[in-house]
Design a protein that fits this description.
Dipeptide-binding Protein, domain 3, disordered N terminus, globular
């Protein structure tokens, strides 16, 4: 699902796309009763008369300001197109038809929609809008806004929308406040929930403008915040909307507590860290193990003025790794991809670079019941057997684990890599000492494209090991905007990427790994996977009728992806590492998905003394 508002959340592992899934209904296939919420399987946790989510403080005080960091730049306030680089936090100005809770696998609760109606077979869904839902200009949010948004995003938005909404056959207006989506034949139980995640845009505002172009005119919204001020590439400030229609809605209780939210932009993480220690902004999620271990040994932390806190989570790790662009000839052979994975020494990196803070990633759905381990279960074999001969044989015979130097040396692994490369037709030329293809005479060389200088320290040891295999590898570091352009057009050899996953995978898997997305500009199928067997497994996963079936389908998909050697798996953390100046309160209960700064608030007593406490700190 596309959750623009999640930008300030600690759910960073979910990226700009967070997928969760849902359904509750037991009505007859041709009839249904409107409901307040919907779950992917079973019933939603919260009853119709719920007052707030359990993981918030419903009486959290409103007020105060928070400053957050962003890296790079922005040149657009339109977050719904490929062009340009949108500003951080734009989702704060919009509302969606429904809102997810983060303490369930996948449930959605009505926000703009007061009623959700769908039959047992999930062949359609109708959303009835709330009569009091309004845009910031006071005009009501209508069914026409919903329909226009849906059609515009499919026609002019990024390709993810087309894949995500591919199962919708038609959309129609039913009165002033109701919209019905009819689905194509087939089973897609997630689709009603996906459509609930639709960010609704104002037709009357956008139809006078060119939607497909970047803009620096603040768009009209309906959400808890409005754009207050900005300077492209430097900062953007959002102010809580006094006339926000949904401020007392149960999904919003205890959330969006700050009067203003400001994002300041920094060139890179190094500058950002120094800015945090100087008090230039308030809150940071620290993703660098080195920085966490070494950069914050300062009086502010020692005296508890700058809080350094570990917050555990139970969310799916997803997949982070070096991604092979298999559109490139040298990476088409899976044996080559398998070989190069032996040149990455995670154990050395974790000990030497990461201070032992990470766990090795081996699954696309790690840290969850969705992870494929051991050999396939009987239920998984039923899914996989029809594709025998079209998927790697190892799927049926061997548990996947990435190459390790536990109990061995990197030299041992490089010898295995050299053997695999030789089997694929690559040998060391005795004259040049370079890895050369026996038939074409081509020397193996490629570029690792990065957008963060901090990642060079991780890539360089990998490159040094590749050099021992006779491979010419180098790093190319570009700014965020150029990186996005290059990756949108698949103009790279290898990158590092994260595919976030939820506890309920679904339609997004088409964009991640589906054949139709392999060459669609801007898709997240960065590896260029185009495998009919994978396509079929994805469709079966989307159609899974029960939670048990979904788990089996996901594990089957995981096995095929693991043995496809599309990435060199990296690592993950099972906790969020946060730093913040001591002026906040936050809920004690942390949901499965991790904490969210949108549930935090300003503690007035702490805030009143913070500057005085800062002033007493030793000067650097």
């Amino acid at each position: 699902m596309i959750r623009l508002r999640s930008a300030p959340s600690l759910l960073f592992a979910f990226s700009a796309f967070i997928f969760m899934g849902g359904s509750i209904f037991t009505a007859a296939p041709l009839a249904a009763e409107p409901a307040h919420g919907i779950a992917m399987h079973g019933a939603p946790k919260y009853a119709k008369d719920y007052k707030n989510f359990d993981y918030v403080n419903p009486t959290a005080p409103k007020g105060g300001d928070i400053k957050l960091p962003a890296i790079g730049t922005f040149d657009s306030l339109n977050a719904f197109i490929i062009k340009g680089t949108p500003a951080a936090g734009l989702g704060l100005i919009y509302d969606t038809l429904t809102e997810a809770s983060t303490d369930e696998a996948f449930s959605q609760y009505g926000l703009l929609a007061e009623g959700i109606e769908t039959p047992e077979d999930r062949s359609w869904v109708t959303f009835t809008l709330r009569s009091d839902a309004k845009w910031h200009d006071g005009k009501p949010i209508t069914a026409d806004d919903v329909i226009w948004t849906f059609e515009t995003l499919k026609a002019k938005g990024p390709p993810q929308f087309r894949f995500y909404y591919a199962g919708v056959e038609a959309v129609e207006r039913i009165g002033e406040r109701a919209v019905k989506f009819r689905f194509k034949p087939g089973v897609n139980r997630e689709l009603p929930l996906i459509l609930g995640q639709l960010t609704v845009l104002p037709k009357h505002w956008w139809e006078k403008r060119k939607f497909e172009e970047t803009t620096l005119e603040p768009p009209l919204g309906s959400g808890p915040y409005k754009i207050d001020s900005f300077e492209p590439g430097r900062f953007i400030t959002y102010r809580r909307a006094d006339n926000y229609w949904g401020k007392d809605h149960p999904v919003n209780k205890g959330r969006y507590n700050f009067d203003t939210m400001r994002y300041d932009y920094y060139r890179d993480s190094t500058v950002m860290i120094e800015a945090l220690k100087a008090g230039a902004f308030d809150f940071r999620v620290e993703n660098s193990s080195k920085a966490w271990a070494t950069a914050y040994d300062v009086p502010a932390v020692k005296q508890g003025v700058l809080i350094k806190e570990v917050l555990p989570h139970q969310r799916t790790s997803g997949m982070q790794g070096f991604v092979f662009n298999t559109r490139r000839e040298i990476f088409k052979d899976p044996k080559v991809r398998q070989a190069l994975a032996y040149a990455f020494d995670f154990e050395w990196s974790n000990k030497t670079l990461f201070y032992g803070l990470y766990h090795r990633t081996r699954s696309y759905f790690g840290n969850s019941e969705l992870e494929a381990k051991g050999l396939p279960s009987p239920d998984e074999l039923k899914i996989l057997e029809p594709y025998r001969g079209r998927i790697p044989d190892e799927v049926f015979t061997t548990e996947y684990n990435p190459p390790s130097t536990e109990g061995r040396t990197i030299r041992d692994n490089l010898l295995i890599a050299a053997k695999l490369l030789k089997e694929a037709g690559w040998i060391i030329d005795p004259k040049t000492k370079k890895l050369t293809h026996q038939s074409s005479g081509k020397v193996m060389g490629f570029e690792i494209l990065l957008d963060d200088p901090l990642f060079e320290r991780i890539s360089l040891p990998f490159i040094q090991n590749l050099e021992r295999l006779g491979i010419i590898a180098k790093i190319r570091n570009v700014d965020v905007a150029q990186y996005r352009r290059l990756t949108d057009n698949f103009d790279f050899d290898m990158i590092s990427n994260i595919w976030g996953q939820s506890m309920s995978p679904g339609n997004e898997q088409r964009d991640f790994w589906g054949s139709d997305s392999a060459n669609a500009t801007g898709s997240t199928n960065l590896a260029g996977i185009a495998n009919p067997a994978i396509d079929a497994i994805i469709e079966s996963l989307i159609a899974a009728p029960t939670r048990e079936a979904l788990v089996a389908q996901t594990r089957a998909l995981d096995r095929v992806l693991q043995w496809g050697h599309w990435v060199i798996p990296h690592w993950h953390s099972r906790e969020d590492r946060v730093l913040y100046w001591d002026k906040f309160g936050h809920p004690q209960k942390v949901p499965v998905g991790g904490t969210d700064v949108m549930t935090w608030w300003i503690d007035k007593d702490k805030a009143a003394t913070l500057e005085a406490r800062k002033a007493k700190l030793p000067k650097p």
